Amino acid sequence: MKFHTTGLLTAITWVGYTSAQHFKRLGACPKLGCVFPPDQVDFFPGQYFDIRLEVHAPVNGSEAFNGGVPDQQFSFCIQKGDGACEDVSTFFNMTSEPELETWSFSYYEDLFAQDADEPTLVNVASKAYRALSLDIPGHYTAKLSYYNGSETVAHWLVRESPKEAKAKNVLLFIGDGMTQAMITAARLLAHKSINGRYQSLMQMDQMEALGHQMTHSIDSFITDSANSATALYTGKKSSVNALNVFADSSANSLDDPKVESVAELFRRRTGGPIGMVSTAFIADATPAALCSHTRDRDQYPSIVYEYLFGASALNGSFTWPTGCEGPDVIFGGGAEQFIAGPGSPNGTDFYKVFQEKGYNVVYNNTELQATGNDEKTLGIFSISNMAKWLDRQVYPENLLNQANSPTGDGTDAVDQPGLKDLTLKAIDILQARADKQGTGWFMMSEAASIDKMMHVLDYDRALGELLELDDTIRATIAHLKKIGQDENTLIVVTADHGHGFDVFGGADTKYLAAQTSDRKKRAAVGVYQNSGLSGYTVEKDSSPLNNTVVIGAQGPNFPVTWDPRYAYAAGFAANPDHREGYAVNKSGPRLPAVEVETDILDNVVNPSDQPDGEYHAPTSVCPDADSFAGFVVNGTLSVDQPQGVHSLTDVSVFASGPGSEAFRGVYNSIDIFFKIADALGLAADASDCDSD
Amino acid sequence: MKFHTTGLLTAITWVGYTSAQHFKRLGACPKLGCVFPPDQVDFFPGQYFDIRLEVHAPVNGSEAFNGGVPDQQFSFCIQKGDGACEDVSTFFNMTSEPELETWSFSYYEDLFAQDADEPTLVNVASKAYRALSLDIPGHYTAKLSYYNGSETVAHWLVRESPKEAKAKNVLLFIGDGMTQAMITAARLLAHKSINGRYQSLMQMDQMEALGHQMTHSIDSFITDSANSATALYTGKKSSVNALNVFADSSANSLDDPKVESVAELFRRRTGGPIGMVSTAFIADATPAALCSHTRDRDQYPSIVYEYLFGASALNGSFTWPTGCEGPDVIFGGGAEQFIAGPGSPNGTDFYKVFQEKGYNVVYNNTELQATGNDEKTLGIFSISNMAKWLDRQVYPENLLNQANSPTGDGTDAVDQPGLKDLTLKAIDILQARADKQGTGWFMMSEAASIDKMMHVLDYDRALGELLELDDTIRATIAHLKKIGQDENTLIVVTADHGHGFDVFGGADTKYLAAQTSDRKKRAAVGVYQNSGLSGYTVEKDSSPLNNTVVIGAQGPNFPVTWDPRYAYAAGFAANPDHREGYAVNKSGPRLPAVEVETDILDNVVNPSDQPDGEYHAPTSVCPDADSFAGFVVNGTLSVDQPQGVHSLTDVSVFASGPGSEAFRGVYNSIDIFFKIADALGLAADASDCDSD
């Protein structure tokens, strides 16, 4: 809905303003005049970005102003250091001024307003300036003037960056949702301890540098994977659901002000090959943020379209001079964006489009291993997210009857590679292509289902994914040594956010199942001295004379068994209603809560979710708790949430290889981008540029 | 109960053995022959330790053996490297062999056995060798031979250590129970963020070195504060409740095999002054482990007795040649161990005993600040644990009507110092005394109530304690600079274990209180984009034009307010039954659950625990949930647990000053001891010694 006005504007006093509400008019815009990129943004020298200016006039609500008429006569200037503030057109030598845009949007000021369905309407006047960059390091001040004397000031910094590269290649591993508590739990499961001393360690434990990064969003303290990936890849905090854009208030999710990602920058500066590897569907936020730009992470068809053709092709009216230009390796799930149909770009066979652009396309692990290393390669191995390590390696029968073949032929995707297969093959392709061009390479490899399984409270599956990630890092280091690239390659391992999760004791699953009341079942959990020792690394028939390390059934860095009688007991900082029995879910990922028909969206304990499948079948959605192995835990989340949620905790960063020392200490998520770009030496040569 | 036998023993085959159970025969003894120190123990050169050998004969149960007759003819030898295994008496040049001891003990093999009251009886034959040390670095093998061919082997390592000290002084801060998730939450509360960028940081964020340590116990994966402090101070993993001993199976908790702590070692090697500072009662585990040795951390009178007189004085039959010899500074709570009465050693006035040993004794902050720096000083500021920062600084009325004066006169301890007061004064005393002797100093300063408040789910109070710790570290660094000791002093900050805790969203406390059903109250919690921004750093009437950092009401590193309408929403991995409303508890620490009279020990929601005190008073122990501000959360812990419990997660280590680089990376809790002892250069001079 567009809004037009020509009314005169008068000076004003501000209405009272309550900060920190859940429901904000517009995330990174605390005033009525908005500048994007907002205050406190740092740029890498030469990194492309758009500017969006907005002036708001709330029609009603606590900030109602000027009769709902936004100032269209706003002005905007930029100054470098202590210099004069030059009009933006002059500063950037623009030949034309963008058109004024107007629109309106509405929001609820709080939950009471939402319950009463009393939205606040805001009218907006706006301009956008596209595809700019600041090449010269230093402080910049951007000032939006509006409403006859009001000002919104944004302090920007273009950081200094070394011109010399420390690393030729960068491999960024992301354990989605992985916290230190999860790494600790995974170590307990997979590594044998004797008298409190681990006999082997996680590969992450042994990296050269340890750091912590803060994951919060620009306008809320809990992040999702889209805006956290944006922070890691662009050095810019953004909003939940936003990929490489700052969130504006317009309805069009493709017109929000964009920023350039490290993958785009690497491609533009070096021409070197790019790898995108994930166990999620490949249009999911963490891989998507390498190469796409949208306010709405759910626009999967446009996201994969942008992988090949860039942002300008998506929406020709907004110039964007850079892009991934078809990543050299794209490996993951998500065939629904490639099989001709409702999920693919314009309903086309998007495999065919990739083939036409010169890609090898592979659909299973056998084909993956057999394909050459010289061509760009698209590997799509399932519809939706790929199979979990625990199902592939321990309970393979769960891969059957999924009808998830990436070809769309309705068969099961049973020959799926794991993260290690994907990553090692990706290295070989990237290295072959980089050798041909005389460049390095950049890859992101994501263990996506740590997060996805924590969401459904399936911590065993999540920790299986985490152990697979650790095993992949170990194999990667060995492989890089083998091909002589270990001294050229910076490896960074981190997460994008956490889930509130920790192990607090040990559970006697046999005793728990034998009890007939929920309160008695809780006595099965031992704490402190009764938490016991890990039963996951011990052969079931071992004797007191056997005090040696037992090699895991699925390799040396995995548990021997996933269903010991004495399981670890873990819990979440927040959860939906669910049932807990602490035994591994042998029949596939959990679904802890299900929706029931009421007047509101209401999720209750899933009657089919029995942590130990050997017990009584449910008979209704309100089952007798006594007939189940687990006991009922009522939720703490809003009942409209069927899953667990992300958490605030800082996450760990582990790094090895050239440039890894920069990853020590405590810093913000955005610093990861700068550290990687510094290591790769991607800074613009300021002498070649004329930024102002 | 003593047990005697002279029966002949025959060779055996082992019965089946299930590892990882909750209920173990004896922690670090997986076989029927036990060696303490057990397999995998490392020593610092010259560090004193006892040896305890046990041979077990279970009378019944799954390990029943030899008709319940233990082998009394066991032998024990030690070899260095590849040398011959010499009998222990020869190896240590002993003039006499210790007496054989015998006893019996019983335990339950699992929860079914406990429910049925079917204990397993074990008869034991044992010897103990006291006050030994190994001065020469290298590998040692200790072998216990028993039952005509069975063997229990312990591999010991005496680590290499530099002779040169890097640091003159060491200040070890322990945030009891402090995880990275808590540090992240505290940062959110106390430090203002603009557009996702913190305008100030925690002091911990800015330390020179970041590490992680693993906290697990020797015989269970969840630790308590006693055995984790033992690990940090002696470099030895031990059992829950054990202070500087390995847990043997005898009934006497003072005869368990001891190890020397870093405080004792520092005193013995350098003669320098020792400081013990805690906001807990001073006989609590974390301070106690500096200077006492017992299997049972609850023996408070004997613990404080040992502070002054050492372990040999406690129990003259067990030689222990070392001790703290009266720490130069003892500051904390716990007057009940000093006021003549049931809690004090032998019922004496123990203040008087300290005075007789030359101590200044102070009872409040005014006296603390006024006292000189030259004498040993005992400062006891309350009965039980000291007041919490939130009560001292924000809700001081909660200090009234406590009758907790340290003098025992029944008045209130209202003039209590905070951790910063305690620590800075302790530094001045230690420095003055060290200067006089020409030595350095060693201090441990504990923020004890991070843990104590997390136990009762009072996360606001816990985070107040954490912020006070951070503020103390900041002030300490400044003070050390001021007195010219910053380049002499290694500061190490860590925790002893975690609590499963994280922030997952923001709660609209006004909306929550206004809802009339538990399920609707849960809708007050916003997640992701609806988690909001911290309201703790914002003045309540700030306007959209006010975008500047607001200084905290209690100083720049604390929140402006503790009760914003939009509070953070946090939860625990495990909890007792309780009610949750996310508002600060203004009337004092929470008591989340209370015991009800049933046939078992059963804890239920405390009807008086209303996170926001402004709402309806409870009328019964089974209240109508709708009449309270919070909603009921059923527990996941055994119903005999009235509190939250510790968790598994690795905890962070921060260090600055000389030697701090050694604290980078990932390691075990025991390594903290070795790193500190290395930094202080406490290694024995092997050339002066004759260890074997």
From TrEMBL, chains A, B:
CDD domains: ALP. Gene3D superfamilies: Alkaline Phosphatase, subunit A (3.40.720.10). InterPro entries: Alkaline_phosphatase, Alkaline_phosphatase_core_sf. GO terms for molecular function: alkaline phosphatase activity; metal ion binding. SMART domains: alkPPc. The keyword Glycosyltransferase does not apply. Keywords: Magnesium, Metal-binding, Signal, Zinc. Residues 1-20 form the signal peptide. It is an enzyme of class 3 (hydrolase). Pfam families: Alk_phosphatase. Belongs to the alkaline phosphatase family. This is alkaline phosphatase. It comes from Tetrapyrgos nigripes.
